[in-house]
Write a structure and sequence with these properties.
The complex is a heterotrimer. Chain B has helices at 13-24, 64-73, 137-146, 162-173, 192-199, 258-263, 303-320, 328-343, 349-356, and strands at 2-9, 29-32, 79-82, 85-90, 96-100, 104-115, 119-121, 134-136, 154-158, 177-183, 205-207, 209-215, 222-227, 240-243, 246-249, 253-255, 267-270, 275-278, 291-293. By secondary structure, chain B is an alpha/beta fold. Chain C has helices at 2-5, 10-16, 20-25, 41-45, 73-77; strands spanning 28-31, 51-52, 62-63, 83-87, 94-100, 112-116, 122-132, 142-148, 157-159. Classes of the chains: A mainly beta, B alpha/beta, C alpha+beta. Chain B binds chain C through residues 47-53, 57-60, 172-173, 175, 186-188, 191-203, 205, 207, 304, 341-348, and chain C through 2-8, 32-41, 44-45, 56-58, 77-82, 102-104, 116-121, 138-140, 156-157, 159.
Chain lengths: 101, 360, 162
Amino acid sequence: MRIKEHPILKFNKEKKIKFIFNGQELEGYEGDTIAAALYAQGVKVLGKSLFLHRPRGFYCAIGNCSSCLMTVNGVANVKTCVTDLEEGMVVETQEGKGVIV
Amino acid sequence: MKQAEIVVIGGGPAGLCAAMSAAKSGAGVLIIDRNKSLGGQLVKQTHMFFGSEKQYASTRGIDIPEILLKELAKYKDKVEIKTNSTAVGFYEDGVITVLEKEDKYYKVEPKAVVVATGAYEKFLSFPNNDLPGIYGAGAVQTLMNVHGVKPGNRVLMVGAGNIGLIVSYQLMQAGVKVAAILDAAPKIGGYLVHASKIRRMGVPILTSHTVKEAIGKDFLEKAVVCKVDEKFNPIPGTEITFDVDVMCISVGLTPLNELLAMRGCRMKYVPQLSGLVPVRDENYETTVENIFVAGDASGVEEASAAMVEGYLAGLCAAAKIGYKPDDFYERRKDYMNQLNNLRSGPAARHILAGLDQIRR
Amino acid sequence: MFEKTGIPSKEMVMEKFPSQDRINKGPVAIVECYREIPCNPCETACRFNAIRVGEDINNIPQINFDKCTGCAICLSKCPGLAIMIADGSKSEDTVEIKIPYEFLPLPGEGQVVKGLDREGKHITDVKVLKVTNPKSFDRTPVITIEVDRKFLYEIRNIRVEV
């Protein structure tokens, strides 16, 4: 789902980064946010709503709406749409509100 | 407690221009922006801007932050920039509280403030509107233009204002098909040159249509659309189903200015300015002394107007705290003329009607 | 209707064209700007003072067809991509049309592509004569196509099949 060639833009996606999503090893690029890297791999569902368990994913992309919250490196409720992807990150979908240590 | 002369909250087009203008007059400026780099929504705008030379007409939005930052760098001894910093509170005693990243919290005591926090996207109610695949236009632009990721294969665009028309064009440039553009209104709301550009690519525009419901299990699979009458009531029997995996909701923006309300500025609901806005004078000063506003936070308009409002508010904020250079009146007149120019045509009639309602 | 569809009527389109005589003399700009919006970079860009918008930047641009040389600088500068160039001086049967084209893949010179009208409908096939994409056009390539003269008032866009 990555755009290879664009008539106006040049994307600086050069350095590949490996990360783990729900136990599976995936690849993204330096400069990606976690949500964008997942989206590029076709992962559109990032979590479930608290009570009706409806699928939740990307929505505002700017850190406002809380649709993209996931547990990252053990920390719950991380806004994946505005958090940069880092090498070796462990990203998991949350069950309910996640665990705040 | 951090002291500052002028604090500019928001580093988009209005904020950057306000900072530049105030620094040019000799004031010290602190820019606070919650993103990791400055430019606001400009960084996603791949199209050429309108207006005139002074507002960078014909320059692509994505290139404007660099131009503004280069100008701003001339005053680097006067301007401090704090990114990844969210202004989380603005209290009656004038103090602004700031949260930097996740864990650094501090307070700032400014002499004057320019709130340039922009706007946020409105949304629509319809069954299954919470399915992944249904996004705001901003999200689609972020995915495509910042991250280089296609939002999907086939999009239904809801909203034929400037943003809906422009983002449809950008989707096509990214290699994504646009099945149709809808608007509940009987006429296209955006500039007709944008509409013509997208029509000549074969994309249909359906006015007097709205979304009835979205269908899908884990993400969007289909969208059902129907015609509406002059009172925006759905007309039964007019349903059309589109096979789309993305729906882009582009139904307008509304000003993001809770900080001003918190501070105690008098606010007024003005439909023509797209929501709740601060009452202000022609210098863009609100009802609280030394608190100024600029850009979409003062009323949703265009980036060109946001930049000029920024220049004007920055100039006047600096003047109020004692930085009134010799060319103050000349600059103020120039900025006001530019705004009048941008607003004198039919495209901005609603803005003038809105501005009439918020004069101090 | 225009406000509902975004497609100008044939009368509106023809009003923007100069006379056949002028088109046959050499390249000339057709500025399809039908409504007032605050915008004037076409006037600023023209080196021959052939476009006039005036003090009020909302005015619809007026073209002086005698001064216009069809150089296409305005075409690349127009934020609405509303300008095209027509040149009927090269042949009796065809006209050369220049349009902005901001998509990939760009066609190759000599390639035959689909010619589209203002509704995006395929009305004829056209030959690509030239693809101009200098840095000064800031990523708005200009494509010159050869079209059968009878489509002069209909042709507006191309589709390059991948």
